[in-house]
Amino acid sequence: MHFPTAKSAMVALSFVLFSAWAASIESVEAQVISDKVTWHKAPELPIAMQEIYPAVFKERIVVGGGFTPSDSPSFFGLGPSTSVYLLNPPTGRWQKKPSLPEPRHHLGMVSNRHYVYGIGGFAGEKGSAWQIQRSVYRLDGTFREWRKGPSLPIPLAESVYANVGKNIHVIGGKTISKKTGKNVDSDAHFVLVNNAYWRKAKPAKIVRNSAASAVIGDKIYVIGGRTSGENSANLQDVEVYDSKKGSWASLAPLPVAAGGLSASVLNGKIIVTGGEVFGPKNNWKAGQAFKQVWSYDPQTDSWEALPDMPTPRHGHGMVTLNNTLYIIGGAEKVGPQQPLSSVISIEGQKPQ
Fold first, then answer.
1. Phi and psi for 111 in degrees, rounded to 5?
2. If both were cysteines, with which of 118, 216, 307, 308 could 137 make a disulfide (CB 3.0 to 4.6 Å apart)?
């Protein structure tokens, strides 16, 4: 009599154990799936653009300037652009907006609640394509006309640009040497206060250009980049500026040395993509572009490799809007080669 009962108990126990095992497997699979990066095609730019710094403004993505294919090029088939485009993602298409007052490449775009700014960058025709600018333009929420803003205290290009609160930060990049008149790397740090005037802030610890940056809370993270000149080199260095304390601190280095990379924040982590490295003796033609993707966790000060992008990119832009990260334009090969109009995206994890 008792044997069937014992058998039933054993079956029930086996079922419970199997269910627990299946649940654990399902949990692991769900975690793996949620951690995967799935690349999506996003609306393509109307034209190929590289050396761009897009911004989010009024729930729109704004990109402008940059190097674009040109009938009167200033640098290997490319020229500085006045074109400005705006993407409202639900519409699925980019709209042309008022052009910049003057052509610029490496124009730093960054926004606060009042304006989207176009800061510094390079101008110039063939033979003088790398003239660093002090000019600042801004566009309000009507998107009707670019107007002049407060000029930079010094010429700056290939800097990083960040918005913390109401203020705009411009850090590092290249400027013009007062001694030689040539372009040199900079550790300068200026803050645009109340859209009205620039003030000096504590210089970066590292002199560099072509770095990436991202903002989390009151902190600005500056990542990678390169130094120029005879001893030019890519950098892995990462540092963070605490705007409340006015201080810099060093962090865990990027796993790869890269310049011309880009970064944005998704789900509380900093996602860093692409970049390039020049060949020996600063020969960009012998270099390569990267398709690697890295994730930085500020809670643990650690880096994690994510799945590569479908193609290499450098000189591209990255922004995050409504929990979706967009990777915009750039070039597939090192230097002024194969500029891209394609845009890809990653969707962040939805809050539980």
1. -135, 155
2. 118
- Under the banding of pLDDT at 50, 70 and 90, the label for residue 35 is low
3-class DSSP state of 260: coil
pLDDT digits (tens, 9 = 90+) for 281-330: 778 888 999 999 999 999 999 999 999 999 999 999 999 999 999 999 99
Beta strand spans in 217-301 (E): 219-223, 226-227, 233-234, 238-242, 247-251, 262-266, 269-273, 276-277, 288-289, 293-297
Model pLDDT, residue 350: 78
Q: Residue 320's beta-bridge partner residues? A: 325
Residues 226 and 232: beta-carbon distance below 8 Å: yes
pLDDT > 70? residue 251: yes
Closest by Cα among 71, 74, 46 to 343: 46
Is it the case that residue 119 has pLDDT exceeding 70?
A: yes
The whole-model pTM stands at: 0.89
Asked whether 208 and 229 are in contact (CB, 8 A), the reply is no
Distances (CA, A) of 195 to 52, 92, 307: 22, 32, 40
Residue 21 token pair:
């095992």
